[in-house]
Specification:
Low-confidence stretches of chain A: 1-22
InterPro entries (chains A, B): ATP_PFK, PfpB_PPi_PFK, Phosphofructokinase_dom, PKF_sf
Family (chains A, B): Belongs to the phosphofructokinase type A (PFKA) family. PPi-dependent PFK group II subfamily. Clade 'Long' sub-subfamily.
Oligomer: homodimer
EC number (chains A, B): 2.7.1.90
Helix content of chain A: 25-40%
Pathway (chains A, B): Carbohydrate degradation; glycolysis; D-glyceraldehyde 3-phosphate and glycerone phosphate from D-glucose: step 3/4
Number of strands of chain A: 18
GO cellular component, one term (chains A, B): cytosol
CATH architecture of the largest domain in chain A: 3-Layer(aba) Sandwich
């Protein structure tokens, strides 16, 4: 198929009098982008043959199985499904299907390949099927806003980053009215199935949708796919969420560059905040890839009940130790959600939300008397700019917007202040200069690595197989990822088996628990074994830019390899 | 030679009881880094053979030749030198040389390869020569702090980013005492030559040093090499400074990622500030690589005498136009030095520096009465956070630190305010959300592209040839860069020919004029031809990560190609 786009800056060709093209069809492509489109991907051999689907034993839940069973009477206990090669190919290949697909939540590199894989499955095994892409996330389902995805439409998005093929959204299908709207769409489009590509919340939502459709005796089945750069949606059967690999490698490239700069310049401490609010997987992975002098892992801060003063002192102590060794520079990684992990900050913010809702913030600070002593001290410990942010930046519900706080700048100021104190005490006599960085949006929409491209394609292809064989309420599961791609396994895992309940507003709500950094897991253990060495020696690694061919083009991320036991 | 480093995270091997290794020798390398070390580079064929050096006609100066002639009585008028193949090889190959090399100023990808090229020249053509690396920039020359660069020492830095082999510094050799120190070092080490790798200031300094050595009848010759990611050191014979290619490609990768994110999310305007304070070459090159909706070029702002209000209105008008087309997102590039280019801001800062030196800034703002009316208005036009920065951030001389102003955040606030006004007037009814980015340090120390690796190696190799043939006061010049590498030319250009004078403290000072973005040059002309289209259509290009092998690994930057007439 000839590419329906213009390659590498040939802008003049775009001056055509024809009506404006939309999205990628109107795009000019860089040479790397253009080359990626036609890049053939390796393929798990089980997906290339005729296969049967074999069910495992009945499943339970991650917690509170009795409650999960009540919430999902039709789905609870479903077995996992595994694709196995079969000469007969028991899965029917003749019936045409009508399938919908939706991208839900934040961007992650590889989403387009899940859709390509699903599309190709339908082409290969259910010729004549129709694939609808719901536009703008779950709202597209509710409003029945969709586009029919054809070979030509999908082509320019193959192996490309972003979610712009059909865009995404953060709406949820929650209320009875919203479920009704989803049912209407399913019936109007006569959907045999729906693939929901999203994170923990979106997959919980997918399972509720599957339960709802089944309870209403609709034929529409629902399959989830694990997406999030944060890496916090995973379990034994779903070893990783897609996008994590690419995002970490993009951030690690920049961290590596900054490290070489720090060592060359010899006079800056670079404080790098990394995306990932709920869990610190990205920060940990970047640390394993680059060996920074200091890495703060939110889960450890929470487990050890550290205060902000503890964190500041830890950094300051390393800075002083390094100063004595003659190093007046360094690199420090901080997870975006750091202050969410600090119990005393949580407490302060809760108190502030309460006070700000009812009281006036007087300039003389009389309002502060309403804070508990501990929170009062903590508030005063914050640099003025952060105090201001705490008081002024509010979300539409009037709550303090923790996400807006530039933690890296805050820590620089706190470290400065503490070092000044130590200087007075004669414990330090260098000049400390901090440089702040936040790497966030840069990593969400990069060109997917070979791993993410291949993994996503397999996830989408598998989702098609699960739908065709009548499965619902499963999450597409591609495993054995440390092995060569041809030996990867493919199947589906009961979404209810990942669930626990949380009590909200007096009711049990099902949730897929976020996978946090495990302090006794292999990645954290490796990090904690070496961090003291990395602190004082400079064992920086600069991973360099992601390569698509040649050396390093097929290196997996450390977290995945360590969790699979494939790296010591 | 076997690599004296540990590859890719094999940290345990570093737990040896031996004394700590220093710098790269103690480093663990990523797979990409390790692979780059042994990467063979293409080589201009003229450097691979025996050659003669042929002089051109006498040179003049970029401006005020009479004054330059007075300032450089020994060097003025020197011809350019060109390497030409020769069967006899008139350049002597037997005499051992003692050569010093220094890195001066900010990091730029490729510096290590200039040193490798120089070292290899000496190995190939003056076996037994000694190469000294002065540590920490020109201060290393003055203090005679150096390291002897051996094959083993240099090896792990080949094709690697950063300046950490010998580090850099920003000192200048200016006073008679400092020149004396440099002479003493040259004599102590019995230097036949010195290679100064730096930007416009450093090359001016190199020429003064060459003049001084010659006037004192020292044998030490001085050759410069054109380094700066900012791209503002170039002329006909020196088509580009090294590092510009790599830095722009690193920034463009991230801009491309942010563009795809903007289009996928559909709700943010990303304001990206890019390094490059004096000239806007980086911003222009990134625009040509990625096609942002809005690009501000400082030189144009200055030429058209635009005010900050003009710039704000330009952005606001595009935002409104896009809103009407249904696009509530976009990407905007801003050069780091933007506000330096705005005459009214220059004026305000001059007045502020004067006032802050003598007056107290009272809270009631009575001090503001000392401002001219125009400056007073401008000050009030700034968002409060910027007002604070203008008053509080001072350099050691008490001057306002313009470089510390986060222009991208300032513009977001100004655009927000203006859009709010337009909303009141009924001209706009979208919700504007800005996201700010600053890409700086991330680009200075990346792994050099194939172009920068090759170009730098040739610059260093050529510098060796110029020194050996007795040349001084030249800048190493490698040309014909749009042709295949084997056809590149090599030679040297009289540094005095790049110079003009500036009047400072009643004296003429020689300066190599910074090469600014030419508004009638091919790169700006191409940009201005397309920017209106890029503003309203979304013709984003995502260049993707730098590739070292395979597709796009040998693409040159647009600025260079356009300036060489090699791209329409």
């Amino acid at each position: 198929m000839s590419p329906p786009f213009i390659v590498d800056g040939d802008v003049s060709a775009a001056n055509s009098p024809s009506p404006p093209l939309i999205g990628r069809l109107a795009s000019v492509y860089s040479e790397v982008q253009a080359n990626r489109i036609d890049q053939p991907l390796p393929f798990p051999s089980v997906l290339g043959k005729l296969f049967d689907i074999v069910d495992g034993p009945p499943s339970s839940a991650a917690g509170n199985p009795a409650e999960i069973a009540k919430l999902f009477p039709n789905l609870f206990g479903q077995p996992s499904a595994m694709l196995v090669p079969s000469d007969s190919g028991a899965v029917k290949v003749d019936k045409k299907l009508k399938i919908g697909v939706v991208l839900s939540g934040g961007q992650a590199p590889g989403g387009h390949n899940v859709i390509s894989g699903l599309f190709d499955y339908l082409q290969d095994h259910a010729k004549g099927s129709t694939l609808y892409g719901f536009k703008g996330g779950p709202a597209g389902i509710m409003k029945c806003k969709y586009v029919e995805l054809t070979a030509q439409f999908i082509y320019p998005y193959r192996n490309q980053g972003g979610f712009d093929m059909i865009c995404s959204g953060r709406d949820k299908i929650e209320t009875p009215e919203q479920f009704k709207q989803a049912e209407e769409t399913a019936q109007k489009l006569d959907l045999d199935g729906l693939v929901v590509i999203g994170g923990d919340d979106s997959n919980t939502n997918a399972c509720l949708l599957a339960e709802n459709f089944r309870s209403k005796n609709l034929k529409t089945r629902v399959i989830g796919c694990p997406k999030t750069i944060d890496g916090d949606l995973k379990c034994k059967e779903v070893p990783t969420s897609f996008g994590f690999d690419t995002a970490c490698k993009i951030y690690a490239e920049m961290i590596g560059n900054v490290m070489v700069d720090a060592r060359s310049t010899g006079k800056y401490y670079h404080f790098v905040r990394l995306m990932g609010r709920a869990a610190s997987h990205i920060t940990l992975e970047c640390a394993l890839q680059t060996h920074p002098n200091i890495t703060i892992i939110g889960e450890e801060v929470a487990a050890k009940k550290l205060t902000l003063k503890n964190v500041t002192d830890y950094i300051v102590d390393v800075v002083i130790k390094r100063s004595k060794l003659g190093y007046n520079y360094g690199v420090i990684l901080i997870p975006e959600g750091l202050i969410d992990f600090i119990p005393e900050v949580q407490q302060l913010i809760a108190e502030l939300n309460e006070i700000l809702a009812h009281d006036i913030i007087d300039e003389d600070g009389i309002w502060k008397r309403k804070l508990t002593t501990q929170s009062h001290h903590l508030f005063d410990f914050f640099p003025p700019a952060i105090q201001e942010q705490l008081l002024l930046e509010r979300d539409p519900h009037g709550n303090v917007q923790v996400a807006k706080i530039e933690t890296e700048k805050m820590l620089i100021q706190m470290v400065e202040t503490e070092l000044e104190k130590r200087k007075q005490e004669g414990a330090y006599n260098d000049e400390f200069k901090g440089q702040s960085h936040f790497f966030g949006y840069e990593g969400r929409c990069g060109l997917p690595t070979n791993f993410d491209s291949t993994y996503c394609y397999a996830l989408g292809y598998t989702a098609g197989a699960l739908l065709q064989s009548g499965k619902t309420g499963l999450i597409s599961s591609v495993g054995n990822l440390a092995a060569p791609v041809e030996d990867w396994t493919a199947g589906g895992t009961a979404l209810t088996s990942l669930m626990d309940v949380e009590r909200r507003h007096g009711k049990f709500k099902p949730v897929i628990k976020k996978a946090m950094v495990e302090l006794d897991g292999a990645p954290f253990k490796k990090f904690s074994l070496f961090r003291d060495q990395w602190a004082v020696e400079n064992r920086y690694i600069s991973p360099g830019p992601i390569q698509f061919v040649g050396p390093a083009s097929n290196v997996l991320n450390h977290t995945l390899l360590l969790e699979l036991g494939a790296q010591a």
